[in-house]
Amino acid sequence: MATANPIDYLPIIIQFIVAIGFVIFGMIGSHLLGPKKHSKVKDDSFECGIEAQGNARLPFNVKYFLTAILFVLFDVEVIFMYPWAVNFRDNLGNGTWFWEMILFVVFLMLGFLYIIKKGALDWD
Amino acid sequence: MKAIIILSALGLATMFVGVYNFKKALLPMILLGLLAVIGINTMEWNTNIHYYNDMLYFDNWAVSFTNLILAVSILVFLLSGQYFKKNTDHLEDNYSIIIFTIIGAILMVSYSNLAMLFIGIETLSISLYILAGSKKTSLASNEASLKYFLMGSFATGFLLFGIVLLYGASGTFHLHGIKDYVIENHASLPTIFYVGILLMMVGLAFKISIVPFHFWTADVYEGSPTLITAFMATVVKIAGFAAFLRLFFTCFSSITEHFVPILCILAVLTMFLGNITAVYQNNFKRMLAFSSISHAGYMLLAIIALKESSFIAILLYTAAYSVATITAFAVLLMIKAAHQENDSIDTFNGLAKRSPFMAFTLTIAMLSLAGIPITGGFFAKYYLFANTISAGYTWLVVLAVFNSAIGVYYYFKVIIAAYFKEGSEEKLSIFPAYQLVLIITAIATLLLGILPGLITEMM
Predict the structure, then answer these.
(1) Would you say A77 and A112 are in contact if contact means Cβ atoms under 8 Å apart?
(2) Distance (Å, rounded) from C-alpha B78 to C-alpha B61?
(3) CA atoms of B397 and B407, how far apart (whole Å)
(4) Distance between CA atoms of B196 and B183, rounded to whole angstroms?
(5) Is the ipTM of this complex over 0.90?
(6) Is residue A9 within 8 angstroms of chain B, CB to CB?
(7) Which of B186, B207, B388, B449 is the S-S candidate for B240 at Cβ 3.0 to 4.6 Å?
(8) Is pLDDT above 60 for A1?
(9) pLDDT digits 0-9 by tens, B336-361
(10) What is the CA radius of gyration of chain B?
(11) A4–B190: do the CB atoms touch at under 8 Å?
């Protein structure tokens, strides 16, 4: 195969420069171009038109984090099913194609069973 | 390979046996499972199979390192029964994470593709970050976990950069592909390839705590639960060195002139810093941490020699070192179980009167670590040094022998504390499981010293 030289990676550096440049350009540009009218309402943080209440740095119940992590975990697992489903028809001849996903789902089920048994989903 | 599949099933089974409240069955099940895995793994001897498009390659080295890891893990599990007796809340989680750590270690000794090396190291490390913090209420344990995690993530970054650069230059992740690439382009390797080797070296050196990537070791060893420290000090070292040697021996053995000078400097620094710092430690766990750093320095000599026999040297050395280290931790755990004392070396004062058996096994372990004849440590050191001399690095061996002499000082400090210092007179009773572990390790240490041919002839 052809030897790769450091110069071949120049496009990556250029992409970095473009990415960083866009951020810097955007921040400086909006600062220079934007109107500068201050008032109490305008300086308020935007919260869908509803008046902001209290401080954002509140301690949350740790159960929210647990639920969020478990959601991400099981949500991400589904990503594996999309390419499998899309290619399903083409691979019908492949004997293990179907059972591989069954095995995967069984493992997923085991994980689900485990968190239920551990009481991770009990709110109280 | 079958070992990995069975261990994964065993880990899952452990989790479920735990949540369905058969906690009494956990330990026997795991011990039987590990013994079965050793048997099944041994059947792969001389088969040399490439699995999954050459992702894993189980040659005899992989099989023997896997067996060593499993044997050491069995010893750790034997100690765990009493250790977790008081607190069984998350017993099954601790156990299953230890089993998953073992899977990571096995991947590290059997990989044949850099992606598998990465997966192995991450499986091992992430499990260990959790285990290091498994004593949730202890501040030191939390600190150890966080420190290990932050530093380990950096090291992983280096390792990944290294893998990427090697891939960028050679266009393959397979060890044999990289080897062919090096041989073909021997004269005109691009700069990024050398930088890649260097970064891989940094990433791996962190895992085996080579100076100057050792700063995490003492704090993490001290803060982690003692049982986990025993596991970390042995299994991680075995897997780390096997991985290091496998990569460098397979891929880079024809361009040694480019990285061996760096390894020589690292080895000298590691030996001196490890030994000299260990002399000044009063905490036994910290002393063992620095002693593990100095042993990493000696073992680096095998990678510098970079020959087929380096594998035997590493196998013998890690075996002798692990067995002796497990003994030391077992005795420490036993004393702590009786007294709740601190980890200071003074806890060993008067041990010979309190329990002659434990003092005797501890002495054998310390002699082995110091490298005194008829123990395994002596022969392992002899083989390692002879191997290095025959590769032409006599000056390194001279420095290593000098360092072993420093080592004798602090290992004998423990023996002197046990035999000649006055301590509490109260007799120590010993748990049967601990007695079993101490008998096994003492016999193994002596056997490795008297009949090392059992291992060297086999290869």
Answers:
(1) no
(2) 26
(3) 15
(4) 17
(5) no
(6) yes
(7) B207
(8) no
(9) 887 766 788 888 888 888 889 999 99
(10) 21
(11) yes
